[in-house]
Write a structure and sequence with these properties.
Structural class: alpha/beta
Pathway: Purine metabolism; purine nucleoside salvage
Protein name: Purine nucleoside phosphorylase
EC number: 2.4.2.1
Organism: Porphyromonas canoris
Largest sheet: 5 strands, mixed, barrel
Number of strands: 9
Number of helices: 7
Distance between the termini: 39 Å
Keywords: Glycosyltransferase, Transferase
Strand content: 15-25%
Low-confidence stretches: none
Mean pLDDT: 91
Length: 275
């Protein structure tokens, strides 16, 4: 298991301080097929992950593997154009390394997005789902010695997804005439997609959508007292399985891309409201 020391986070933060303005308080993590939001960032500077001390490479489909620094809706942001996953063979400390670096850089809000399979029968491909809670079926990234510089040994998760940010997102969505779903996201290891029985099981235990990311970052962010807003794009429907049904990675990317414009508009206005 990779175990970082405080100095490793500080090395990365020290490198990034030359690029990230001090008044930047919002970070965004963009999931599969959702990197288009980064293209809307003005005055953008791209920083490849492999140039940042102690970062790893993003190898997932649809993840460009770079940090974008600039302005979204006129306010400073830093965006992860691609994230790291447990299924890539990285440790949970590597998967969530960037979150603690963001904390050292003064980030107060983390916006996370992902492509997810819907198990709620009211969900359709292309729907946007506000994440109201999650079920973690991945290893917890806080396992191991606690790093008290970032947070307590036992961190509270009763309000993992910030209620004020959720309320603001609903208000913005109404103004933009954008329909939203709400639900519980299940973090799953992958990389194989779920069987029909697994889809059913995950719905029975309370999951509305399933993915292979996000939850570790949220756990780490809350340990660091960073406020979180999360959104899933429903890219496949995991509740009817006829003879033609298959899960296909390219289809997931296409569905995410088609919904990214709506998500970008919503994120932009909610983030603008924070300044």
């Amino acid at each position: 298991m990779t175990q970082f020391e405080y100095k490793h986070y500080e090395e990365a933060a020290a490198y990034l301080r030359r690029f990230i303005p001090e008044d930047t308080k919002v970070a965004i993590t963009l999931g599969s097929g959702l990197g288009a939001l980064a293209d809307m960032i003005e005055d953008a500077k791209a920083i490849p992950y492999d140039t940042i001390p102690n970062f790893v490479k993003s190898t997932a489909i649809g993840h460009k593997g770079q940090l974008i620094v600039g302005k979204l809706g006129g306010v400073p942001v830093v965006a992860m154009q691609g994230r790291f996953h447990y299924y890539e063979g990285y440790s949970m400390q590597q998967v969530t390394f960037h979150v603690r670096v963001f904390k050292l850089l003064g980030i107060e809000y983390l916006f996370v997005s992902n492509a997810a399979g819907g198990t709620n029968e009211s969900f359709k491909v292309g729907d946007l789902m506000i994440i109201t809670d999650h079920i973690n079926l991945l290893p917890n990234p806080l396992i191991g010695p606690n790093m008290s510089e970032f947070g307590p040994r036992f961190s509270d998760m009763t309000r993992a997804y910030d209620r004020a940010l959720i309320a603001k997102a609903k208000e913005v969505a109404a103004q933009q005439n954008t329909a939203l779903k709400e639900g519980v996201y299940v973090g799953w290891t992958g990389p194989s997609y779920e069987t029909p029985a697994e889809y059913k099981f995950l719905n029975i235990i309370g999951g509305d959508a399933i993915g292979m990311s996000t939850v570790p970052e949220v756990i780490m962010a809350r340990h660091c007292d960073i406020r979180v807003f999360g959104m899933s794009v429903i890219t496949n429907e995991g509740y009817h399985f006829d003879d033609d049904f298959v899960n296909d990675g390219d289809d997931v990317i296409r569905a995410a891309n088609s919904a990214s414009k709506k998500m970008t508009a919503l994120f932009t206005e909610v983030i603008r409201s924070l300044y």
